[in-house]
Records
---
Amino acid sequence: MHTSIATVSLSGTLTEKLAAAARAGFGGVEIFENDLLACPLAPEEIRARCADLGLSIDLYQPMRDIEAVPDDVFARNLRRARRKFELMNRLGADTVLVCSSVSPDAVDDDARAAGQLARLADLAQESGIRVAYEALAWGRHVSTYEHAWRIVEAAGHPALGVCLDSFHILSRGCDPKGIEDIPGEKIFFLQLADAPLLAMDVLQWSRHYRCFPGQGGFDLAGLLRHVLAAGYEGPLSLEVFNDVFRQADAGSTAVDAHRSLLLLQEAAGAAVLPPAVVPTGVAFAELLTPDAEPVTALLTALGFTRAARHRGKPVDLWQRGEARVLVNTAATARREGTRLAAIGLESPDPAGAARRAEALLAPVLPRRRAPGDAPLEAVAAPDGTELFFCATGRPELPDWRADFADLPDTPAPPATRTRIDHLAVTQPWHHFDEATLFHRSVLGLTAQESVDLADPYGLMRSRAVTNADGSVRIALGVGAAPTDDTVHAAHIALATDDVVAAARAFRAAGGCLLTVPANYYDDLAARYDLPDEELETYRDLGILYDRDAGGAFRHCYTATVGRVFFELVQRDPGHQGYGAANAPVRLAAQHAGRR
């Protein structure tokens, strides 16, 4: 379907917004009046710019406080409308959005509203323009789409129809099924926005917390199915007021926006995309570092062994049990220090996973490959982390391990079973919702509820995405202190059957565990009836403890190297959490450790 986006949804100047929308693949835009007023280009120049970019101007908005007003006020409104219609002709826009009035001059008189809207439509029709009437959720007398349709129907004018806005409909709890009673040709425009489910003033909710489809709690797919069942054939347009989006880079926001519409069409049965290929495990985590020594010392203390070397690149494979970590010392690492650069995901169909990613606008990464290197499909996540789709140990598909030469005399790994339990990746503050939608839509992972974590310098948000059996767990977070690399550090959580033994072995090998305040263990003794000996062991090793209906979660942390640290985890089979209750203590301890 034809897709469009309101310029108010993006940051920057009008010309920057238009360029971002076009690059992201939108076919059209809604021109928001404030963007036009602040633009130095004449309407004709904006029209030409849109044409050059392949964008149609699908809507001009908004026209406010028009209807159900005294005659003298309406006369002034018609004068204002006449000038706007002249402007729209210069701009090349043929549909105007008229919001239900919030003016104190407006009266509760549907007949007057219908009559005045019909006169407005007469004037619009003379200029070849249609009027799309929208019920604002906070409208003075008209606040539901059903009421707006009754007025439009009573006016009976061919140039007057309704604009349906998902936020205004769903924020009031209206049943969208009634949309099917509106003739499709009288639905002049459809605006879409999601939102988190919040208990607050609807105007403030709308102005600050709208988000793209799939990022909130509304059933937009259900609403879209009703709109299409009514016979609507116009654009699917996004109108999103969001403080974060208005400060973020317009280019990445526009891509995220277009991806959300593709996913919505798929969910509503209006488009067919390559099916999601859900990853089945973590093949490796890749660390990029300018100085291998601190990283390899940490891995050695954790019981990893250097098992193989890449045949053509400065990359070593370190392994313990099923957990694999690649250490990459390429020259590019000097710019950013030690960080988590890439994640290898086991995929039942790597090529299919790449097709899905490309269809949903994920950047496909070019890869410098020497003759004989395994052809690996890879895309970039919103934060720049590279995601490789792997088929480890499957003879019918290329195996990335074939790029590595085994090292002689590699010591035998410890006997205890170790694998990657989860990966925690901190997102730039403006990519959090985008990252969640990306991992859900592109990778087919399921998002858990978002949680707030108390940091000494503010709040962190965290949201985990997982596959069905928990073999892939990625915790996405956004930090409270943008200048603190500890808060922005990613971490790799290693699953072990015995966290006490693992922590002791790590410390005995020279590793440094995060120091946890004694006050934590006094509180732990009050909250849980743990044996004194067990409690003292946890106190000595800095092991944190959490428990829910599914069982216990024991975990401890290493010191941070660059922007990476490790976590040792002993998870009871039924426990699905990540130790969120202990996060404030961990964060405070990391801040204290840096000082």
---
Amino acid sequence: MSMFCFQCQETAKNEGCTVKGVCGKTDEVSNLQDVLVFAAKGVAAYSSQLRNAGKRYDKVDEYLYRSLFISITNANFDGDEIIEAIKEGVNLRKFLKSELEKAGIALDPKFENNFLTTYEYSANDDLVELSKKVGVLRTENIDVRSLREMVLYGLKGMAAYGFHAYNLGSTDNDIYKFYEKALLATVDDSLSAEELTALVFETGEYGVKVMALLDGANTSAYGTPVATEVNIGVGKNPGILISGHDLKDIKELLEQTEGTGVDVYTHSEMLPAHYYPELKKYKHLVGNYGNAWYHQVTEFETFNGPVVFTTNCIVPPRPNSTYNDRIFTLNAAGYPGWKKLKADENGKIDYTEVIELAKKCEAPKEIETGTIVGGFAHGQVFAVADKVVEAVKSGAIKKFIVMSGCDARMARRSYYTEFAEKLPKDTVILTSGCAKFRYNKLGLGDINGIPRVLDAGQCNDSYSWAVVALKLKEIFNANDINDLPIEFNIAWYEQKAVIVLLALLYLGIKNIHVGPTLPAFISPNVAKLLNEQFGLGSITNVEDDLKMFFA
């Protein structure tokens, strides 16, 4: 065993990757990611005390989010870049130590002479042994390990959403306080299983808060999403394809490409950029190219032009791929040999190199035609609330199925396409994230003008369905959110889906089904607890699950 990672849905045998990640990361990168997370915990040991004393440092806030974001599945495969982030964390820890001394604050005794606060990176580190000391397997008790990793993976999801909000100037010090507390709790051997269980649900509480923070940041900057038909064909101009999740990055790209003769296309989770008024106003934002992230190894070939990765999800290119010299990464994303664009002192990215390269490329090759419809975040749904309520009261809509989440490569995920196709015609799918690509081109029609697939946007926009559910509870005077005609059949893949799940559990939503498998990091005892307390379960097959949801 040269590594151990079980943070994503595709982990080997649904147990753990031990030689190389199914995602494509090497054992070295996996072990470095473990060390990076450990370095972030070392920073938190100092920053938490300073924050509680009223002292806050912007570079620390940014690092705490970015460091965990780098370790998310499919975000960064570049070992050298991860090493630099580890060194940055060690240096930040030293800076904070001096700040603590200047303030006359004594370090918490439990961190004195602790490896967490004394670790120094060395190129001679035995990464396999170091990972065993600081990574997943450091915790021997599988139930404690399960609870610690649920908290950590929830924090990784929070870090992604918090990082996007941070880039838009939106932060919340209370969220950072919890984030630091929870990071340090994962290395606190004094905490009982009961205390860790409570922390899991508290992580869900702060997951709701960080998603609300990002929702507010996005809508303040780019307007409230509106129902939009998005072109899935191509134009005649050369183009730039932008993937990932960060809307600030696409805004800057649109500004810099305007009038250049270069079109911009979204890819995968960047599709919802078309729904925001301040982004869709750009005429050269032509459409969305392709499908979910894992199709990129073929779609990047046919796109012909440059590709910009603002965040995850990266798939390692094939040995014969022809697009490596036209891929650019930003922020937490990285891959060996791909060009990295870094923000200037004002936080802006200069896309000149990308634009000039695009001008030399052929226009994208057409792989499909038509349009898809989205933009049904909570603001848009509330705008047509009267129509929705009437459809429910009249019986035209009998049930809503939340099918938000992630798509990925596992063959069993064809379940979600079949499930959507076989749903009763009086059912509406509420979706967000890249899971939508399993059924958003099926032409499932509408109910009294209400599309049967309502796409709220990116994975973080799962928050919208919680807001909508709470509003419907109020409208229908329901005693409990679980009394509403709403079911949850969630597809998961990586850690942003974990924080969404924990947020839903915090809100008290029961009988959630996740698939295509339950997370490997949920131990049998923890799974039993979640099933007994919340009815959490996994998908089975389409026929039996339809009977269960519509019993």
---
Amino acid sequence: MPLVLGPVLRHVGETTASVWVQTERAATVSVLGSEARTFEVSGHHYALVPVSGLTPDSRTPYQVEIDGERVWPPTTSPFPPSLIRTRGPESDRSNRIIFGSCRYPKASDPRVAAELGIDALDAYAARMTKRAPEEWPDALLLLGDQVYADELTPRNRRRIAGRRDRLPDWPDDEIVGFDEYVGLYQDAWTDPEIRWLMSTVPTAMIFDDHDVRDDWNTSARWREEMRAMPWWRDRIRSAIASYWVYQHIGNLPTADLASNTDYRKIMDHEGDTWPLLVELADRADAETDGAKGVRFSFRWDLGHSRFLMIDSRNGRILEDGQHLMLGDSEFSWIEEQVEAPGRVEHLVLGTSIPWLLPHAIGELETVNEIASGRPGWRGRLAETIRQAADLEHWAAFRASFDRLTAMVVRAAAGGPATVSVLSGDVHHSYAARADLPPDARARVHQLTCSPVHNTMHWFIKPGFRLGWSRIARRLAERWAAGVGAPPTPVSWERVTGPLFGNMIATLDIDGEKAEAFFEQPRTAATMVERARVRLTP
């Protein structure tokens, strides 16, 4: 079959769209009369087809052709036609955005499958096939851990064990090479329901730690420990290169692609582009804040809603005594996008890790950051606790937390009806409302949905319930004040949650009104609503 993976519908505008595919060989890929030549990475072939000439506010069924041969949709398919639904004046004020994070692939082993439970995105897609297109979501936001390079399925363990090109020092239970990442993405995206869903719902993505490795970029010491591993350079190059190919380039609107130097260089290259991607990966991993770095944050304007995805993993600055979620240059870019001209009724910020955590956990992370900076055994112990307990969210980067909070407060005073921060990572779902100054027009919420499909450690439920309790909050606040942590610049209250288990969340926008709801799979094709939150009065 010439089509290996895809099609994946990525950014869609009023008259343009991008369709991503992986092909078996070098070829020309066509969608609705628009064409793109594939580019090669280590013997694998990919194309991002820029479709143009579409009609605003239209629904257009599409086919994919490879060298003139129709490869999508299949000749016989149980699914509705794949559509490109453009935006326009009639749809500018409405958006239905589904989101979540932490999606482990389906497992063939019955024991593993039982532990994982029903894939929430798979069940959502199955239910969606029975609904009219006007009820389909306008965008799918995958907020991290799309693949797990360090927690392998039995199938993946067997696959890498059989490879003859693995170097002797590569670990037996983790992904290292680019070819191995190819297998991860194929496992994640070939499920029939998921493949159809991603072919017809515009999909945006950002990575989190497991796309690379658990605790990725949690601290300078973590980076030092990983650099000492003989296989780490191969791993980080493969991880970033595969992320760029499979996830990142489709995030960029057509105009941004045209001006992206790395994208143009790779598209214009004859032959294998792996050396170019190695150079790109090295720059991305070098903690370069500025023009020489690689920006993975991006912006989508969805009618009168502005969506801004923040790279809160690769963008970290950890060396020379710094501990920042983002460097100054990238944070300034984020602030500029928030304040850019245009009618914005709803501002949506995506970050793989939550801004507002359970209070006690947030205070604990700030305390740990202070302790980790101390010399001697106390600092070493705090660092060990940080890595063991995953104390690495925005509150653990207090200077960045304060800057993000200030940006959100300014935005809330500037005109939108809502500011929503969408996150995942923490293996429970909840909504929290920030308490802002009286001059703030917008209501501000943290909306967290995790996992889409994964297991839960035994301590998750009691740990997060305790983290939200008032007693734990008061104790943690006293502890933080005692070690010199400044008061948090914003307070917040839990609105719903914590909710546990596989979940998909929806942000539903209609004019100036907005609400969010959380759904859990009941069966492989049905969902049950667990909670609903009004985001506007």
---
Amino acid sequence: METTKTAPSSSSNFIKHIVTEDLKSGKVKEIVTRFPPEPNGYLHIGHAKSIILNFELADEFGGRTNLRFDDTNPLKEDTEYVNAIKEDVKWLGFDWDGLFFASNYFDEMYNRAVLLIKKGKAYVDDLSADEIRETRGTLTVPGTESPYRGRSVEENLDLFERMRKGEFGNGEKVLRAKIDMSSPNINMRDPVIYRIAHAHHHNTGDKWCIYPMYAYAHPLEDAIEGITHSICTLEFEDQRPLYDWVVQECEMPNVPHQYEFAKLRLTDTIMGKRYLRQMVEDGIVDGWDDPRLPTISGVRRRGFTPEAIRNFIRETGVSKAYSTVDFAQLEYFVREDLKLKALRTMAVLQPLKVVITNYPEGQVEMLEAENNSENPDMGHRQIPFSREIYIEQDDFMEEPIKGYHRLYPGNEVRLKHAYFIKCEEVIKDAAGNVIELRCTYDPETKSGTGFTGRKVKGTIHWVEASRAQAAEFRLYEALVPDDSNPDSESFADRINPNSLQVLQGYVEENMAGVKGQEKFQFFRHGYFNVDPKHTTAERPVFNRIVSLKSSFDVKK
């Protein structure tokens, strides 16, 4: 597949400066980075920042990037997530130089743990998880040494081997690094580096019943693969001393270095994996690819483009300072990417029937319409026009307010690509609801003929009724807005009940047979994507990607 190349950006990237200096000084001869997701869920837009940073850094400096699955917890991992992650990385425009699994290094990790025991740097502990937590201490109080900390090397080797053979149950024993229980860094207070888990692993099957902890496994994986710059988010900064300790004490030939950056935060967006999983499992959303979710599969289904996401991430830059980016800024880049790509057509989301009484019955006229007024290369299309059409309900007001220039009794408007029409009569049902308009048209006012006899202030869109394609439209709001019951202890209380609005309407007849992921701009409504999950041959479903108007000021 064709992979993306780095585009220049004026935004800051302190890691890029580090890489430049490391190459210039000869500290490293080649840049090797990695993207190391845990296959226990779907990637979200925050992961996209790490993906783009790692792949583009290596690409810019002629290096390599690995995709490595940190699959050290068999209880939460699944091949479904492995496949989804690979698809997401490729969709974003990247391809890896090496595909690896942490589980492929389990033998090496075990041997390095044995080395630590032989050096007196690790011991088998019988304390429970709660007891270990209670004796760990606090930020101001040092921890308490385990009564099993003084076990001999021989005893520890024997117990660790028996742990591997499955002689003990889950939680009965762990292997801990022997570092310093009085360290001011809690991560250095004899962290657990192996635990017992009698569970089937998606990659290694039932070969193992002990599994390395992430904080121990991760630096070993980097060292084994020869990673030069191990780039992670700021919450791992306090773990860097442990990262370095593991690499050093395990006597790894390659010595990687860890660098931390601030993760991406967006307004009105929840990216915690626990909350995303809860919404999926509780049926609040339509799977991990629900267009309201910030998962990469969700924004893909909604219609965001990889080009827009890459440009957005580049513009936000890379720093060590936490900040929150307005979601409107991401939407801005989506609009910018789609404005010259998307075919511009007409759709009526809440239809109101209009009968043009002086237009010949049974006649259908074909009119010419440009496909994108900003991109002439996209050409033109033919659209039908006849006596009966649909317009938007809110394009008519029986008693217009001041400044309303669309259709109302006695007023004349232009139909986009067609004629002037004038509202002559309003038809209502028994309940007083407007169900039909009777209008007349002026055949002299056809678009493209150069008519200048009079002007109208309003232009509205429409679709011809007899040939219109019935369609469903899904409009979205933030699923968990920042200001939605922020003090509530229940996450469910923060869910926006209006995050999805489903409307039934019509699109032009030439939209019949559209395929999933095709994108369009619907006049006055915004950009829409054909939903690949629910669209059928008989009835397309369109997800609104973004509205046409942006609240983001690019000049800020």
